[in-house]
Design goal:
mainly beta, four-stranded antiparallel β-sheet
Length: 384
């Protein structure tokens, strides 16, 4: 455990447990400050929140933006997905479990997430980025929330007039150039059905702004993926006939440049595909009748030649791929984690086997509202 030597310094001693007679004979080991800080950046958020009470210098350290960014970087690099979580909707509640428990334990323990603003009902997770969840609590109330630190921020009204029964789509990403988290909202243009209205919210500026409309496309938002400074979405020339889909990207730094990722013609098979991000790379799941392919995009540029097939999975034991909607969640060295129908599925790439993890404490069946996030100290308040 950490024992503070004083309230004003990081010169902190780490006391190692040993039998009493040895403790009396050996000196207490002492670590340099930079080593202690490095150790702290690898610890879980729950422990760090407790350690903020050790002394004022530790509170200042753990609350600093430099430490928060270092901890976030290390959390993404943690072995065995130690800090990766899955949040999912159960009827009337939001729950979470760790990716590592799903991968390495026979039964995954599930915990409730204490939602903010309990008086509001009808919540929906819209996206996640660096430990922040973007949630709508009603069609006009949107918040950014860190479930680990339980801090949240209400977003102002988006400034677009909508019908009573219309629910816009949102997604969340991070602009590294300005160190700013941005929410992108998509609205059908009822005065011109060939356009999609796009607005962007800046957390630093705490305001929305209109950017260029997307012309002649139907955007399948709500299941976007953020990678390489861009948000990636499925788009369709015609909403009723989705056989000719593509992937559209929006650069969050420039905010005006939409790019279309061209796919090999033989993967354009309709509405049974999914995007996911693992270790900073964009992955695409393309489902066929008797098998499913997973592709990885080189983030340096766009084009057909930058897609690489990672794995081809055989038919699931529960039926053909096209008969159950499948969402890709994680792509790991030895396999994949997916959400299919109303159950989680783990695929082992080494032996080609499927496993259906048991999820404890879920009550009724799960819904399709499943999102992944990494535990972090990133705060949605106090930026700028």
């Amino acid at each position: 455990m950490f024992m503070a030597q004083s309230q004003t310094t990081l010169n902190t001693e780490i006391v190692l447990w040993m039998p009493p007679f040895q403790f009396l004979l050996l000196p207490i080991p002492k670590l340099p400050n930079d080593v202690i800080i490095e150790i702290l950046t690898w610890l879980p958020v729950k422990s760090l929140l407790k350690f903020k009470c050790v002394c004022t210098s530790w509170r200042a350290l753990i609350s600093s933006q430099r430490f928060i960014k270092a901890h976030l970087d290390n959390s993404k690099l943690a072995p065995n997905s130690a800090h990766d979580m899955i949040a999912f909707n159960c009827p009337g509640n939001l729950k979470q479990c760790s990716v590592s428990s799903m991968l390495y334990e026979s039964v995954s323990q599930v915990f409730d997430l204490s939602l903010p603003l309990y008086s509001l009902k009808g919540f929906k997770v819209e996206g996640s980025c660096n430990g922040l969840l973007l949630m709508t609590l009603s069609k006009r109330q949107t918040i950014l929330w860190n479930p680990c630190t339980r801090t949240y921020k209400k977003l102002p009204h988006f400034g677009v007039e909508i019908a009573e029964d219309y629910y816009p789509d949102y997604d969340l990403g991070y602009d590294k150039s300005s160190d700013d988290y941005k929410v992108v909202g998509f609205f059908d243009n009822f005065t011109d059905l060939s356009d999609v209205i796009v607005v962007v919210y800046s957390l630093k500026n705490d305001e929305w702004k209109r950017i260029k409309n997307i012309n002649g496309r139907n955007v399948k938002a709500g299941r976007a993926a953020f990678a390489n400074g861009k948000l990636y979405y499925f788009t369709y020339p015609d909403y009723k006939y989705r056989s000719d889909w593509n992937i559209l990207s929006l650069d969050l730094e420039k905010e005006e440049e939409y790019e279309t990722l061209q796919m090999p013609s033989y993967v354009k098979l309709g509405d049974h595909s999914s995007l996911a991000v693992s270790e900073g790379s964009l992955f695409l799941l393309c489902t066929h009748l008797t098998c499913a392919d997973v592709w990885m995009l080189d983030g340096s540029s766009v084009g057909i030649e930058n897609w690489t097939k990672v794995v081809t999975m055989p038919c699931c034991p529960d039926g053909g791929w096209k008969y159950n909607r499948t969402m890709l969640l994680y792509v790991l060295k030895n396999g994949l984690v997916m959400f299919r129908g109303a159950t989680f599925v783990v695929y082992n790439a080494k032996d080609g086997s499927f496993r259906y993890p048991r999820i404890r404490n879920t009550g009724e069946s799960l819904s399709v509202g499943v999102y992944t996030y990494v535990e972090s100290l990133v705060s949605p308040v106090g930026m700028g």
